[in-house]
Design brief:
The protein is mainly alpha-helical and 63 residues long. Helices cover 79% and strands 0% of the residues.
Length: 63
């Protein structure tokens, strides 16, 4: 799922998860599920950012 979404969509989804987790009315099971999904999104976003940084470094090196 994460790979199909664009970076901005993934960031928005992660923000929604954080907001849900910050609410006090989320039960434990849902909290764990949201936390797990957030970790997956966070990892996917980190990998994408590293790819973007590598690409930019390559482009800057070719100037």
């Amino acid at each position: 799922m994460e790979k199909e979404m664009k970076f901005e969509q993934q960031m928005k989804k992660l923000q929604e998860i954080v907001e849900k987790l910050e609410k006090e009315d989320v039960d434990l099971d849902e909290s764990i599920q949201l936390y797990e999904e957030g970790l997956k999104l966070s990892k996917a976003l980190k990998e994408q950012l590293e790819g973007f940084e590598k690409k930019i470094a390559e482009l800057n090196g070719n100037e």
